[in-house]
TrEMBL record:
<dbReference type="InterPro" id="IPR038550">
    <property type="entry name" value="GPCR_3_9-Cys_sf"/>
</dbReference>
<feature type="transmembrane region" description="Helical">
    <location>
        <begin position="804"/>
        <end position="825"/>
    </location>
</feature>
<dbReference type="InterPro" id="IPR000162">
    <property type="entry name" value="GPCR_3_mtglu_rcpt"/>
</dbReference>
<keyword id="KW-0297">G-protein coupled receptor</keyword>
<dbReference type="InterPro" id="IPR000337">
    <property type="entry name" value="GPCR_3"/>
</dbReference>
<keyword id="KW-0472">Membrane</keyword>
<keyword id="KW-0675">Receptor</keyword>
<dbReference type="GO" id="GO:0005886">
    <property type="term" value="C:plasma membrane"/>
</dbReference>
<dbReference type="GO" id="GO:0004930">
    <property type="term" value="F:G protein-coupled receptor activity"/>
</dbReference>
<feature type="transmembrane region" description="Helical">
    <location>
        <begin position="647"/>
        <end position="665"/>
    </location>
</feature>
<dbReference type="Pfam" id="PF01094">
    <property type="entry name" value="ANF_receptor"/>
</dbReference>
<dbReference type="InterPro" id="IPR050726">
    <property type="entry name" value="mGluR"/>
</dbReference>
<dbReference type="InterPro" id="IPR011500">
    <property type="entry name" value="GPCR_3_9-Cys_dom"/>
</dbReference>
<comment type="similarity">
    <text>Belongs to the G-protein coupled receptor 3 family.</text>
</comment>
<dbReference type="Pfam" id="PF07562">
    <property type="entry name" value="NCD3G"/>
</dbReference>
<dbReference type="Pfam" id="PF00003">
    <property type="entry name" value="7tm_3"/>
</dbReference>
<feature type="transmembrane region" description="Helical">
    <location>
        <begin position="837"/>
        <end position="859"/>
    </location>
</feature>
Length: 910
């Protein structure tokens, strides 16, 4: 049965609620002998006029309904601290005038249900129960074993037990939540000394709960500040399966998201041990090892679960990989570090700030089982475990889940001392909780009773809501002289000590105070920090380094904590961590890539390179015009006729157009019309050139190839056919250019000049894709021309221009292949890019002129005696299917000027 889900929220009369609690407690007791953990007395009792209840974790929990082994000595110290402070208060006659404090403390065994059951003793011992349920019949029912039947207290002590004014405890948050749910029904204030769950700050749910420690959200912020201090941005969180662990981990995760710290994984520790628990711990460690870059492990758990996790890490062989960042649940505690020193070395823990209690060590040194066991029923068991000896008089009546028996008798001279006992660093919170109760009671006595010594009628009975109101406003100096008061939520002040578990000298480990976290400010003395004895510097816990300016993050495999850095493009700025956006035209990214700034706009200027290019183009236009004139005047001569004169003029027109296109880049500013003309003219010029050359080489190849197998004249070899085919090929380029301009309208584009705060406006068809699409068909013609030049390379020179065409195409291919790397290098700089394109155009045209026309012009003008018609003739060899054209069979001029005659001669030979 979950009492938290029932009793705290029942809307019922308190009489019914109390009976329900008692019956529920009896049902638990019937399942196991939890109440009989130590013989006939299961409580620490000190007689007083006003009783303070206490809940302490004397024994650890077990996997069944019984208590487990004795808890670490820090919990026994907490109980003794309450006894020590109460005795100090009672010894001061001027503080509580005429009345004394008493103690009724129980062991909750770190179990939620058992803690709630023990708290029932505070409820059924209240004046409310006595007055309303028993109608003031303060009878005593004596058992044969000498105890009171209902309270379990020694005979004669029952009446005073009913004045339970408030409760100090419990230690664990889960236990405090259960107890607070019960005590609020009966208006009994409660002050916890170690419970830090944020849930307990909710005054609507827990109006009678106070604590002397700060809640966990302050501790979580301290941890985040430590992560930020070391720049640890990739960490793992491990927490126990309890309200303390779950809420603490949630707060860490919330703050981590706020500060950009990535949680690689979150793991939950099982609450109980055993074989299944060991397997779960091993699985957790395996999953941790899958993320080797997450070296920091935030460990939010109580000290009892630490050893099992560290044993699993030890088995995995990863003893030196992790850096532990610990919560106050195990910070500064020796139990968690025993036999695990090497694994925990370098750990950083957060601990609520407290100072050692003065004279408490002297008090402990005076304690001995022979006297103190009458007050503290668990002291004998503690003494035996601490000194590993047997007192001899403890009987078999102790019913624990595991009961350790010792053989060697204890030495009567054994004492607790600095050599074998160290004061826990968190005991001040226990002392402050007791002092808060005492000061509130003193203030009530002053206001209600005035100068009357002892409890006046106004304090009989003491109402719980009155004590609650005085606790809210209590202010006092604690046992070390520091001022203390509760905040508006009933919490202690948020002050933490930062501890570093380090190897001070070889083999010697201890917690070293290296800093404080106070009022949300972290102060660390870095010179005191130490990771390992041989390596004091802390390693990184980062999955991916922060990207540089102008780089965006691309996550890997969907892990938001890990990424690769990719720089934004030249014209992009970093919009956010993962996105690069283009700057608008006329803008360029700022130096830090966080935005865009407007640039000064300029046009292509006629510089020295442009002048050289224009002179080159002008000379080409002049020479082209001169050659055209010469060929027209000598069009009937054998040399002109032998060069396929009908195709010479389209070729010259294409060359002329290409030369003229150069002026469009420099003379006129770029507009949509000019850019369209540039794209159209350049493509058309090259298409005319290479269409004419392709038709020439194709005609020669078909005639000579057909002549070896048949006397039939090839189709489409007449001059008119050749001109039509050339026109069709050039028309295809014109149509492609038109379609491309419709699909992607040309226009001016702004080009950023690297190293200059200007943009140059030029046509957008200079970019790689636009230029490639515009020149795709001419390049295809160029490749086909080169192929046919290779196929006709062995034809005798007097019959064709095959060798001249081949040399032309080889040279042109070299020019354009050389242009590609130059274009790539200059693609980001528009001025050299335009010069590169224009030089390539001019060189290609010049090669055509020099290789195809200059030799003809030279013969016409300088060697007219060679401009004659050669004789024709064939010489046959072998069968009719094999023939070779003789050098005297046909003249070069006749072959290209009178193809029909040649066909007839070939037919007669076959």
């Amino acid at each position: 049965m979950d009492f938290k889900a029932t009793v705290p929220y029942l809307n019922m009369n308190k009489h019914i609620a109390l009976w329900y609690v008692l019956l529920w407690g009896v049902s638990i007791n019937s399942r196991g002998n939890i109440l009989e953990v130590n013989g006939t007395t299961n409580s620490l009792y000190i007689k007083g006029d006003i009783m303070l209840g206490g809940l302490f974790q004397i024994h650890r929990s077990s996997d069944n309904d019984t208590c487990g082994p004795l808890s670490p000595q820090s919990h026994m110290q907490a109980l003794e601290t309450m006894v020590y402070v109460v005795r100090k208060i009672n010894q001061n006659d001027t503080f509580l005038r005429g009345f004394r404090l008493g103690v009724l403390a129980f062991d909750d065994c770190s179990q939620e249900a058992y803690s709630l059951e023990q708290a029932v003793h505070f409820v059924d011992g209240s004046d409310f129960f006595m007055n309303k349920i028993e109608k003031d019949k303060k009878h005593e029912i004596v058992c044969s074993n000498g105890t009171d039947e209902e309270s379990g207290l020694p005979n004669g002590q029952r009446n005073t037990a009913y004045n339970v004014a408030g409760v100090v405890g419990a230690a664990a948050s889960v236990n405090s939540i259960q107890v607070a749910n019960l005590l609020k029904l009966f208006k009994i204030p409660q002050i916890s000394y170690w419970s830090t769950s944020p849930d307990l700050s909710n005054k609507d749910r827990y109006p009678y709960f106070f604590r002397t420690v700060p809640p966990d959200h302050h501790q979580a912020r301290a941890m985040i500040e430590i992560l930020r201090y070391f720049n640890w941005t990739y960490v793992t969180v491990i927490h126990e399966n309890s309200n303390y662990g779950i809420r603490g981990a949630e707060e860490v995760q919330r703050l981590a998201r706020e500060y950009g710290i990535c949680i690689a994984a979150t793991e939950m520790l099982p609450r109980d041990g055993g074989k299944s628990g060991e397997e779960e711990y091993d699985g957790i460690v395996k999953r941790l090892n899958r993320r080797p870059k997450a070296r920091v492990v935030i460990l939010w758990t109580a000290e009892s679960t630490i050893p099992l996790l560290l044993q699993a890490i030890k088995k995995s062989g990863e003893k030196n990989r992790f850096i532990f960042l610990g919560s106050d649940g195990w910070s500064g505690r020796r139990y968690s570090t025993e036999h695990n020193e090497k694994i925990l070395e370098g750990a950083i823990t957060v601990q609520p700030m407290a100072d050692p209690i003065r004279d408490f060590d002297n008090y402990l040194a005076e304690l001995h089982p022979s006297e103190h066991s009458q007050t503290n029923p668990w002291f004998d068991e503690f003494w035996e475990m601490h000194f590993n000896c047997s007192l001899g008089h403890r009987g078999e009546e102790t019913k624990l889940a595991t009961t350790q028996r010792y053989v060697e008798p204890c030495n009567p001279s054994d004492r607790l001392s600095a050599s074998n006992f160290k004061q826990d660093g968190q005991l001040q919170f226990v002392a402050t909780a007791v002092l808060a109760m005492a000061h509130a009671l003193n203030n009530i006595h002053r206001d209600f009773c005035g100068n009357v010594s002892g409890l006046c009628p106004a304090m009989k009975p003491l109402e719980g809501h009155t004590l609650q109101a005085y606790l809210r406003n209590v202010t006092f100096q604690d046992m070390n002289g520091s001022k203390f008061s509760f905040d508006q939520n009933g919490d202690g002040p948020p002050r933490y000590r930062i501890l570093n578990y380090q190897q001070t000298t070889p083999g010697n480990f201890s917690y070293v105070n290296v800093g404080v976290f106070d009022q949300y400010t972290l102060n660390i003395k870095e010179e005191l920090m130490k990771f390992k004895l041989d390596d004091p510097n802390y390693p990184e816990s980062v999955c991916s380094p922060e990207c540089a300016q102008g780089e965006r993050k691309i996550t890997k495999n969907g892990d938001l904590c890990c990424w690769i850095c990719v720089p934004c493009l030249k014209n992009q700025f970093l919009e956010n961590e993962t996105t690069c956006s283009d700057c608008e035209p006329g803008y360029m990214p700022t130096e830090n890539k966080t935005g865009c700034e407007e640039l000064m706009t300029v046009y292509i200027e006629i510089d020295n390179v442009a002048i050289i290019t224009l002179i080159f183009a002008t000379a080409g236009i002049t020479i082209t015009t001169f050659i055209a004139v010469v060929l027209i005047k000598n069009r009937s001569t054998p040399v002109v006729k032998a060069s396929s004169r009908e195709l010479c003029f389209p070729l010259l027109i294409g060359v002329f157009i290409c030369y003229c296109s150069t002026f469009l880049y420099y003379v006129t500013p770029p507009t949509a019309t000019i850019c369209g003309v540039q794209l159209f003219v350049m493509g058309l010029g090259f298409a005319l050139c290479y269409s004419a050359i392709l038709v020439k080489t194709n005609r020669v190849h078909r005639i000579f190839h057909a002549g070896r197998s048949t006397a039939k004249r090839p189709d489409f070899i007449s001059p008119v056919s050749q001109l039509i085919i050339t026109g069709i090929l050039a028309g295809i380029q014109a149509i492609l250019s038109f379609v491309y301009m419709v699909a992607a309208p040309p226009g001016p584009k702004q080009y950023v000049v690297p190293g200059e705060n200007v943009v140059v406006v030029a046509c957008g068809n200079l970019s790689g894709m636009s230029l490639a699409l515009g020149m795709a068909f001419p390049l295809l013609l160029m490749i086909m021309c080169t192929i046919y030049a290779l196929l006709t390379r062995k034809i005798p020179s007097q019959y064709s221009e095959a060798k001249l065409i081949g040399f032309t195409m080889y040279t042109t291919c070299v020019i354009w292949l050389a242009m590609v790397p130059i274009y790539v290098v200059t693609s980001t700089r528009v001025r050299p890019l335009i010069s590169t394109i224009n030089f390539a155009i001019c060189l290609s045209c010049t090669v055509c002129l020099v290789c195809l026309f200059i030799p003809r012009v030279y013969i016409i003008l300088c060697r007219p005696e060679r401009n004659v018609k050669a004789s024709n003739g064939f010489r046959a060899h072998g069968t009719k299917h094999t023939m070779v054209l003789s050098q005297s069979a046909i003249s070069n001029a006749d072959f290209f000027s009178d193809t029909e005659a040649v066909g007839k001669d070939m037919t007669s030979i076959s």
